[in-house]
Protein backbone atom coordinates (compact mmCIF):
# COMPACT_ATOMS: atom_id res chain seq x y z
CA UNK A 1 0.00 0.00 0.00
CA UNK A 2 1.26 3.48 -0.87
CA UNK A 3 1.03 5.84 2.02
CA UNK A 4 0.94 9.57 2.15
CA UNK A 5 4.38 11.05 2.50
CA UNK A 6 4.97 13.91 4.91
CA UNK A 7 4.67 16.49 2.17
CA UNK A 8 1.74 18.54 3.27
CA UNK A 9 -0.29 19.72 6.20
CA UNK A 10 -4.06 19.66 6.53
CA UNK A 11 -4.31 22.01 3.57
CA UNK A 12 -3.85 18.97 1.41
CA UNK A 13 -1.58 19.92 -1.47
CA UNK A 14 -1.62 23.59 -0.54
CA UNK A 15 0.75 25.50 1.65
CA UNK A 16 0.55 29.07 2.80
CA UNK A 17 2.59 31.45 4.84
CA UNK A 18 1.44 32.14 8.35
CA UNK A 19 -1.09 34.83 8.93
CA UNK A 20 -1.95 35.72 5.33
CA UNK A 21 -4.78 38.24 5.43
CA UNK A 22 -7.43 38.08 2.74
CA UNK A 23 -8.76 41.46 3.68
CA UNK A 24 -6.13 43.31 1.66
CA UNK A 25 -6.05 40.89 -1.26
CA UNK A 26 -8.90 42.02 -3.43
CA UNK A 27 -10.17 45.44 -2.65
CA UNK A 28 -13.82 45.76 -3.46
CA UNK A 29 -14.43 42.01 -3.12
CA UNK A 30 -13.37 41.43 0.44
CA UNK A 31 -14.68 44.12 2.71
CA UNK A 32 -12.42 45.27 5.55
CA UNK A 33 -13.98 45.50 8.96
CA UNK A 34 -14.45 48.83 10.67
CA UNK A 35 -15.63 49.87 14.07
CA UNK A 36 -17.66 52.85 15.27
CA UNK A 37 -19.09 53.84 18.62
CA UNK A 38 -22.79 54.55 19.15
CA UNK A 39 -23.56 55.52 22.72
CA UNK A 40 -22.20 52.72 24.90
CA UNK A 41 -22.24 50.16 22.08
CA UNK A 42 -19.34 49.40 19.76
CA UNK A 43 -20.84 48.74 16.32
CA UNK A 44 -18.79 46.62 13.96
CA UNK A 45 -18.95 46.21 10.25
CA UNK A 46 -17.42 42.77 9.83
CA UNK A 47 -14.83 41.72 7.28
CA UNK A 48 -16.51 39.51 4.72
CA UNK A 49 -14.58 36.25 4.29
CA UNK A 50 -15.21 35.68 0.61
CA UNK A 51 -14.88 31.97 -0.12
CA UNK A 52 -15.41 32.42 -3.86
CA UNK A 53 -12.42 34.71 -4.28
CA UNK A 54 -10.26 32.68 -1.91
CA UNK A 55 -11.11 29.40 -3.60
CA UNK A 56 -10.37 30.87 -7.05
CA UNK A 57 -6.87 31.77 -5.81
CA UNK A 58 -6.41 28.25 -4.50
CA UNK A 59 -7.74 26.76 -7.75
CA UNK A 60 -5.01 28.56 -9.67
CA UNK A 61 -2.35 27.06 -7.41
CA UNK A 62 -3.88 23.55 -7.65
CA UNK A 63 -4.12 23.79 -11.45
CA UNK A 64 -0.43 24.72 -11.59
CA UNK A 65 0.39 21.83 -9.22
CA UNK A 66 -1.52 19.35 -11.40
CA UNK A 67 0.24 20.60 -14.53
CA UNK A 68 3.64 20.20 -12.85
CA UNK A 69 2.78 16.65 -11.75
CA UNK A 70 1.81 15.72 -15.30
CA UNK A 71 4.95 17.33 -16.74
CA UNK A 72 7.40 15.90 -14.22
CA UNK A 73 5.84 12.51 -13.39
CA UNK A 74 3.29 11.85 -16.13
CA UNK A 75 0.56 11.61 -13.47
CA UNK A 76 -2.79 13.30 -13.91
CA UNK A 77 -4.74 13.55 -10.63
CA UNK A 78 -7.90 11.46 -10.99
CA UNK A 79 -11.10 12.03 -9.00
CA UNK A 80 -14.08 9.63 -9.07
CA UNK A 81 -17.37 10.91 -7.72
CA UNK A 82 -20.15 8.43 -7.02
CA UNK A 83 -23.76 9.56 -6.84
CA UNK A 84 -26.52 7.19 -5.75
CA UNK A 85 -30.08 8.37 -6.31
CA UNK A 86 -31.45 11.60 -7.70
CA UNK A 87 -31.40 14.00 -4.75
CA UNK A 88 -31.41 17.43 -6.47
CA UNK A 89 -28.95 19.05 -4.01
CA UNK A 90 -26.54 16.09 -4.32
CA UNK A 91 -26.76 16.30 -8.12
CA UNK A 92 -25.71 19.95 -7.97
CA UNK A 93 -22.81 19.22 -5.57
CA UNK A 94 -21.56 16.34 -7.73
CA UNK A 95 -21.77 18.40 -10.91
CA UNK A 96 -19.85 21.26 -9.27
CA UNK A 97 -17.14 18.90 -8.02
CA UNK A 98 -16.73 17.27 -11.44
CA UNK A 99 -16.56 20.68 -13.16
CA UNK A 100 -13.96 21.95 -10.73
CA UNK A 101 -11.87 18.79 -11.17
CA UNK A 102 -11.91 19.26 -14.93
CA UNK A 103 -11.04 22.93 -14.69
CA UNK A 104 -8.04 22.06 -12.47
CA UNK A 105 -6.82 19.71 -15.21
CA UNK A 106 -7.76 16.49 -13.37
CA UNK A 107 -9.08 13.27 -14.82
CA UNK A 108 -12.69 13.35 -13.65
CA UNK A 109 -15.06 10.38 -13.50
CA UNK A 110 -18.67 10.32 -12.39
CA UNK A 111 -20.66 7.17 -11.62
CA UNK A 112 -24.39 7.56 -11.16
CA UNK A 113 -26.50 4.76 -9.69
CA UNK A 114 -30.27 4.44 -9.36
CA UNK A 115 -31.63 5.06 -5.86
CA UNK A 116 -32.44 1.36 -5.35
CA UNK A 117 -28.97 0.06 -6.23
CA UNK A 118 -27.99 -2.77 -3.85
CA UNK A 119 -25.10 -2.30 -1.42
CA UNK A 120 -23.11 -5.08 -3.13
CA UNK A 121 -23.05 -3.19 -6.41
CA UNK A 122 -21.84 0.01 -4.77
CA UNK A 123 -19.09 -1.86 -2.91
CA UNK A 124 -17.94 -3.61 -6.07
CA UNK A 125 -17.61 -0.25 -7.87
CA UNK A 126 -15.54 1.02 -4.94
CA UNK A 127 -13.35 -2.12 -5.20
CA UNK A 128 -12.76 -1.33 -8.88
CA UNK A 129 -11.94 2.34 -8.14
CA UNK A 130 -9.63 1.33 -5.27
CA UNK A 131 -7.65 -0.73 -7.78
CA UNK A 132 -7.71 1.80 -10.63
CA UNK A 133 -4.29 3.48 -10.97
CA UNK A 134 -5.84 6.46 -12.84
CA UNK A 135 -7.97 7.32 -9.78
CA UNK A 136 -6.35 9.03 -6.77
CA UNK A 137 -9.46 10.20 -4.99
CA UNK A 138 -12.87 8.58 -4.45
CA UNK A 139 -15.88 10.43 -3.12
CA UNK A 140 -19.28 8.93 -2.48
CA UNK A 141 -21.79 11.77 -2.23
CA UNK A 142 -23.76 11.71 1.04
CA UNK A 143 -26.45 11.28 2.18
CA UNK A 144 -27.08 7.80 0.80
CA UNK A 145 -30.54 6.27 0.25
CA UNK A 146 -31.84 4.68 3.47
CA UNK A 147 -31.28 1.04 2.47
CA UNK A 148 -27.53 1.57 2.11
CA UNK A 149 -25.11 1.27 5.02
CA UNK A 150 -23.22 4.57 4.96
CA UNK A 151 -20.51 3.41 7.32
CA UNK A 152 -19.78 0.28 5.32
CA UNK A 153 -19.60 2.32 2.12
CA UNK A 154 -17.27 5.02 3.46
CA UNK A 155 -15.04 2.47 5.21
CA UNK A 156 -14.74 0.47 1.99
CA UNK A 157 -12.81 3.27 0.25
CA UNK A 158 -9.06 2.68 0.45
CA UNK A 159 -7.67 5.11 3.08
CA UNK A 160 -5.06 6.43 0.63
CA UNK A 161 -7.85 7.40 -1.82
CA UNK A 162 -10.26 8.66 0.86
CA UNK A 163 -10.10 12.34 -0.16
CA UNK A 164 -13.20 13.10 1.92
CA UNK A 165 -11.29 12.03 5.03
CA UNK A 166 -14.11 9.82 6.38
CA UNK A 167 -12.19 6.54 6.75
CA UNK A 168 -11.60 5.70 10.42
CA UNK A 169 -7.87 5.41 9.76
CA UNK A 170 -7.80 9.01 8.51
CA UNK A 171 -10.14 10.26 11.23
CA UNK A 172 -7.89 8.63 13.85
CA UNK A 173 -4.77 10.30 12.50
CA UNK A 174 -6.45 13.70 12.54
CA UNK A 175 -7.69 13.13 16.10
CA UNK A 176 -4.10 12.23 17.06
CA UNK A 177 -2.92 15.54 15.57
CA UNK A 178 -1.22 13.99 12.53
CA UNK A 179 -2.58 16.22 9.78
CA UNK A 180 0.28 15.47 7.40
CA UNK A 181 -0.37 11.76 6.81
CA UNK A 182 -4.12 11.96 6.48
CA UNK A 183 -6.84 13.60 4.43
CA UNK A 184 -8.58 16.23 6.50
CA UNK A 185 -12.34 16.41 5.72
CA UNK A 186 -12.81 19.14 3.15
CA UNK A 187 -15.27 21.45 4.93
CA UNK A 188 -13.28 21.90 8.17
CA UNK A 189 -10.05 22.16 6.15
CA UNK A 190 -11.57 25.05 4.17
CA UNK A 191 -12.89 26.70 7.35
CA UNK A 192 -9.46 26.43 8.92
CA UNK A 193 -7.83 28.22 6.00
CA UNK A 194 -10.23 31.13 6.42
CA UNK A 195 -9.56 31.20 10.17
CA UNK A 196 -5.81 31.25 9.50
CA UNK A 197 -6.29 34.12 7.07
CA UNK A 198 -7.68 36.12 9.98
CA UNK A 199 -5.60 34.93 12.92
CA UNK A 200 -2.49 33.19 11.57
CA UNK A 201 -1.56 29.56 12.11
CA UNK A 202 -1.08 29.81 15.88
CA UNK A 203 -4.32 30.36 17.76
CA UNK A 204 -2.71 30.34 21.22
CA UNK A 205 -4.80 32.20 23.75
CA UNK A 206 -7.92 32.27 21.55
CA UNK A 207 -11.16 30.58 22.52
CA UNK A 208 -12.94 28.64 19.78
CA UNK A 209 -16.49 27.33 20.01
CA UNK A 210 -17.77 24.78 17.49
CA UNK A 211 -21.54 24.28 17.39
CA UNK A 212 -22.15 20.77 16.01
CA UNK A 213 -20.40 17.46 16.68
CA UNK A 214 -20.79 15.57 13.40
CA UNK A 215 -17.95 13.38 12.14
CA UNK A 216 -17.95 15.36 8.89
CA UNK A 217 -17.69 18.89 10.26
CA UNK A 218 -17.88 19.50 14.01
CA UNK A 219 -15.40 16.94 15.37
CA UNK A 220 -12.68 17.37 12.72
CA UNK A 221 -13.08 21.15 13.01
CA UNK A 222 -12.46 20.92 16.74
CA UNK A 223 -9.38 18.72 16.15
CA UNK A 224 -7.89 21.29 13.76
CA UNK A 225 -8.54 24.19 16.12
CA UNK A 226 -7.03 22.25 19.00
CA UNK A 227 -3.94 21.42 16.95
CA UNK A 228 -3.58 25.14 16.24
CA UNK A 229 -3.51 25.74 20.04
CA UNK A 230 -6.98 27.26 20.40
CA UNK A 231 -8.93 26.49 23.56
CA UNK A 232 -11.85 24.55 22.10
CA UNK A 233 -15.41 23.92 23.24
CA UNK A 234 -17.75 21.67 21.24
CA UNK A 235 -21.49 22.30 21.60
CA UNK A 236 -24.45 20.23 20.44
CA UNK A 237 -28.18 19.81 20.94
CA UNK A 238 -27.73 18.92 24.65
CA UNK A 239 -25.56 21.93 25.52
CA UNK A 240 -27.17 24.17 28.10
CA UNK A 241 -27.22 27.94 27.59
CA UNK A 242 -25.66 27.78 24.14
CA UNK A 243 -25.78 31.58 23.64
CA UNK A 244 -23.66 32.08 26.78
CA UNK A 245 -21.07 29.54 25.57
CA UNK A 246 -21.05 31.09 22.09
CA UNK A 247 -20.39 34.53 23.60
CA UNK A 248 -17.04 33.29 24.97
CA UNK A 249 -15.78 32.58 21.43
CA UNK A 250 -13.09 34.54 19.64
CA UNK A 251 -13.73 32.07 16.82
CA UNK A 252 -17.23 30.64 16.39
CA UNK A 253 -17.96 27.85 13.90
CA UNK A 254 -21.63 27.02 13.35
CA UNK A 255 -22.31 23.60 11.76
CA UNK A 256 -25.81 22.83 12.91
CA UNK A 257 -28.29 22.77 10.03
CA UNK A 258 -30.77 25.19 11.67
CA UNK A 259 -31.55 28.28 9.62
CA UNK A 260 -30.19 31.49 11.19
CA UNK A 261 -30.09 29.98 14.69
CA UNK A 262 -27.05 32.00 15.81
CA UNK A 263 -28.20 35.52 16.69
CA UNK A 264 -26.36 38.81 17.08
CA UNK A 265 -26.45 38.72 20.88
CA UNK A 266 -24.61 35.33 20.88
CA UNK A 267 -21.47 36.97 19.51
CA UNK A 268 -18.48 38.46 21.28
CA UNK A 269 -17.61 41.81 19.71
CA UNK A 270 -14.96 41.32 17.02
CA UNK A 271 -15.23 37.51 16.86
CA UNK A 272 -14.55 35.55 13.68
CA UNK A 273 -17.72 33.70 12.67
CA UNK A 274 -17.63 30.78 10.23
CA UNK A 275 -21.06 29.73 9.00
CA UNK A 276 -21.03 26.17 7.65
CA UNK A 277 -24.80 25.74 7.48
CA UNK A 278 -26.70 25.44 4.23
CA UNK A 279 -30.44 25.71 4.75
CA UNK A 280 -33.09 26.27 2.14
CA UNK A 281 -35.85 28.63 3.30
CA UNK A 282 -38.74 30.33 1.62
CA UNK A 283 -39.17 34.09 1.47
CA UNK A 284 -41.96 36.22 0.07
CA UNK A 285 -40.71 38.76 -2.48
CA UNK A 286 -43.35 41.04 -4.06
CA UNK A 287 -46.05 38.58 -3.06
CA UNK A 288 -44.20 35.61 -4.61
CA UNK A 289 -42.71 32.72 -2.62
CA UNK A 290 -39.04 32.27 -3.46
CA UNK A 291 -36.49 29.79 -2.25
CA UNK A 292 -33.35 31.17 -0.61
CA UNK A 293 -30.21 29.65 0.91
CA UNK A 294 -29.30 30.79 4.40
CA UNK A 295 -26.68 29.68 6.89
CA UNK A 296 -26.90 28.72 10.55
CA UNK A 297 -26.03 32.31 11.41
CA UNK A 298 -28.33 35.30 11.21
CA UNK A 299 -26.03 37.27 8.93
CA UNK A 300 -27.72 40.63 9.29
CA UNK A 301 -27.49 40.66 13.08
CA UNK A 302 -24.15 38.88 13.49
CA UNK A 303 -22.26 40.93 10.89
CA UNK A 304 -22.91 44.02 13.03
CA UNK A 305 -21.05 42.51 15.99
CA UNK A 306 -18.48 40.10 14.51
CA UNK A 307 -15.02 41.09 13.33
CA UNK A 308 -15.18 38.75 10.34
CA UNK A 309 -17.89 36.52 8.91
CA UNK A 310 -18.44 34.09 6.05
CA UNK A 311 -21.49 34.66 3.83
CA UNK A 312 -23.95 31.95 2.75
CA UNK A 313 -23.77 31.21 -0.10
CA UNK A 314 -20.23 32.07 -1.19
CA UNK A 315 -18.34 31.34 2.02
CA UNK A 316 -17.56 27.81 3.21
CA UNK A 317 -19.22 26.07 0.22
CA UNK A 318 -16.63 27.01 -2.44
CA UNK A 319 -13.82 26.33 0.03
CA UNK A 320 -15.14 22.79 0.58
CA UNK A 321 -14.97 21.99 -3.13
CA UNK A 322 -11.48 23.37 -3.55
CA UNK A 323 -10.18 21.41 -0.55
CA UNK A 324 -11.44 18.25 -2.28
CA UNK A 325 -9.22 19.15 -5.24
CA UNK A 326 -6.37 19.86 -2.87
CA UNK A 327 -6.73 16.44 -1.23
CA UNK A 328 -6.87 14.72 -4.63
CA UNK A 329 -3.69 16.46 -5.74
CA UNK A 330 -2.09 15.47 -2.44
CA UNK A 331 -3.02 11.83 -3.11
CA UNK A 332 -1.61 11.93 -6.66
CA UNK A 333 1.60 13.54 -5.40
CA UNK A 334 1.94 10.74 -2.87
CA UNK A 335 1.95 8.23 -5.74
CA UNK A 336 4.67 10.25 -7.50
CA UNK A 337 6.74 10.36 -4.31
CA UNK A 338 6.30 6.61 -3.73
CA UNK A 339 7.56 5.87 -7.25
CA UNK A 340 10.76 7.72 -6.48
CA UNK A 341 11.75 5.69 -3.43
P1 LIG B 1 -25.41 17.00 11.35
O1 LIG B 1 -26.90 16.98 11.31
O2 LIG B 1 -24.67 15.74 11.17
O3 LIG B 1 -24.96 17.61 12.75
C1 LIG B 1 -25.60 18.74 13.28
C2 LIG B 1 -25.07 19.02 14.64
O4 LIG B 1 -25.75 20.16 15.15
C3 LIG B 1 -25.26 17.88 15.63
O5 LIG B 1 -24.10 17.68 16.39
C4 LIG B 1 -26.42 18.37 16.51
O6 LIG B 1 -26.33 17.96 17.86
C5 LIG B 1 -26.21 19.85 16.47
N1 LIG B 1 -27.47 20.56 16.72
C6 LIG B 1 -28.66 20.35 16.12
N2 LIG B 1 -29.58 21.17 16.64
C7 LIG B 1 -28.96 21.91 17.57
C8 LIG B 1 -29.37 22.92 18.46
N3 LIG B 1 -30.63 23.38 18.47
N4 LIG B 1 -28.47 23.46 19.29
C9 LIG B 1 -27.19 23.02 19.29
N5 LIG B 1 -26.73 22.07 18.47
C10 LIG B 1 -27.62 21.52 17.62
O7 LIG B 1 -24.97 18.11 10.29
P2 LIG B 1 -23.57 18.32 9.54
O8 LIG B 1 -22.48 18.55 10.51
O9 LIG B 1 -23.39 17.32 8.48
O10 LIG B 1 -23.91 19.70 8.78
C11 LIG B 1 -24.24 20.88 9.51
C12 LIG B 1 -24.67 21.94 8.53
O11 LIG B 1 -23.60 22.22 7.65
C13 LIG B 1 -25.84 21.55 7.62
O12 LIG B 1 -26.60 22.71 7.36
C14 LIG B 1 -25.16 21.10 6.34
O13 LIG B 1 -26.00 21.26 5.21
C15 LIG B 1 -24.00 22.04 6.29
N6 LIG B 1 -22.86 21.56 5.54
C16 LIG B 1 -22.27 22.44 4.69
C17 LIG B 1 -21.15 22.09 3.98
C18 LIG B 1 -20.53 23.10 3.09
O14 LIG B 1 -19.77 22.74 2.22
N7 LIG B 1 -20.81 24.40 3.30
C19 LIG B 1 -20.59 20.75 4.07
C20 LIG B 1 -21.18 19.91 5.08
C21 LIG B 1 -22.30 20.32 5.77
P3 LIG B 1 -26.50 16.41 18.30
O15 LIG B 1 -25.21 15.74 17.92
O16 LIG B 1 -26.69 16.51 19.76
O17 LIG B 1 -27.68 15.88 17.55
Q: What does this entry show, briefly?
A:
With 341 residues, the protein is an alpha/beta fold. It is built from 10 helices and 13 strands.
What does this structure look like?
The chain is an alpha/beta fold. It folds into two domains: 34-52 and 184-318, NAD(P)-binding Rossmann-like Domain (Rossmann fold); 74-164, Rossmann fold (3-Layer(aba) Sandwich). Helix content is 36%, strand content 19%. It contains ten helices and 13 strands. Residues 1-8, 16-31 and 36-43 have low confidence and may be disordered. Bound molecules: NADPH dihydro-nicotinamide-adenine-dinucleotide phosphate (NDP). NADPH dihydro-nicotinamide-adenine-dinucleotide phosphate binds at residues 187, 211-214, 216-218, 235-239, 242, 255-258, 276-279, 316-317, 320.
Question: What structural keywords apply?
Answer:
single chain; 341 residues; alpha/beta; Rossmann fold; 2 domains; six-stranded parallel beta sheet; three-stranded parallel beta sheet; 10 helices; binds NADPH dihydro-nicotinamide-adenine-dinucleotide phosphate
Amino acid sequence: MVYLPALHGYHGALSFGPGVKTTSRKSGVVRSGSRRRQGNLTMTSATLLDGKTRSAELAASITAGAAALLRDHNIKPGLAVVLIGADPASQVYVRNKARMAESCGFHSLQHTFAADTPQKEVLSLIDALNGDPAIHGILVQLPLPDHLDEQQVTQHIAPEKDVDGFHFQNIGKLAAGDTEHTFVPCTPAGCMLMIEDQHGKDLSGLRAVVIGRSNIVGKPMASLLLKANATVTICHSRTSDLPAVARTADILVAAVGRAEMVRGDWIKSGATVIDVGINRTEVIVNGETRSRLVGDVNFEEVSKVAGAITPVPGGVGPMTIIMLMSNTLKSARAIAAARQV
